[in-house]
Amino acid sequence: MEIAVSHLPARLWRGFVDLVTPSLCLSCGTPVGEPASLCAACWGKLKLLEEPVCDVLGTPFAYDQGEGALSGAALADPPAWERSRAAVLFEDEAAKLVHALKYRDRPEAGLLMARLTARAGRRLLAQSDVMLPVPLHWLRLWRRRFNQSALLAQRVSALAGTPWRPDVLVRARSTRAQVGLDQEARRRNVRNAFTVRPDRLAEVAGRSVLLVDDVRTTGATAEACALALKKAGAKQVNLLTFALVQLPAKPHT
């Protein structure tokens, strides 16, 4: 009873705020029934990533190829992580949510992203000892004021119960933005850019680590993080992102 009473003022304030500021769709601004949500029209435009998908890359299959099936891309160029999942394809509606969180100070977009991400990663979350967000360099963090990947990991942790740690994996050097770089240039840009803090090695060694990020494009950043975690002794590294950029298939040569 004491717990319920202690939370009563916050609940009353939340109810008051909801009453005087009606909830709006995070994408188009149409009134909706609950906060941190999309209207039916915008929800229908989200490209949710459902099974079947490649077990390693999380990319969608046209038909079910069986448990643990791998895509040609995963077989041809295996990443440093073991398994990955994403909630949605990075298309118009997903991009609006990411940009609302990242650039427009809309933390409620992160709530919806976290719900979808936790749903997509439920199997990985159940197998993980700890979640680690992809870190920002301290200069970029100072300019942006928050790390969207850390916010996502924090909220997924609250939903799933898997512990998260914001200060284990760090970006050891500043790197240029990945936007506009091809896959090989992205890999060079972030090579050896990440490390595990020496006083946090016990958080990683011998453990199953779930790396969390908002968007995966080529996977170069996640690859560099996974390599740093493996070097620190991680037993397994899996990857969970809100959105996945579906790149065109490479032509056969």
Q: If you had to describe this structure to a student in words, what would you say it looks like?
A:
There is one protein chain. The chain is an alpha/beta fold and about 250 residues long. Helices cover about 40% and strands about 15% of the residues. The chain contains eleven helices and six strands. The protein has a four-stranded parallel beta sheet with strand order 1-6-5-2. β5, α11 and β6 (about 235-245) form a beta-alpha-beta unit. The longest helix is centred in the middle third of the chain and has 14 residues, at about 105-120. The radius of gyration is 19 Å and the shape is globular.
Q: Keyphrases for this structure?
A:
single chain; 253 residues; alpha/beta; 4-stranded parallel beta sheet; two-stranded antiparallel sheet; 11 helices; 13% strand
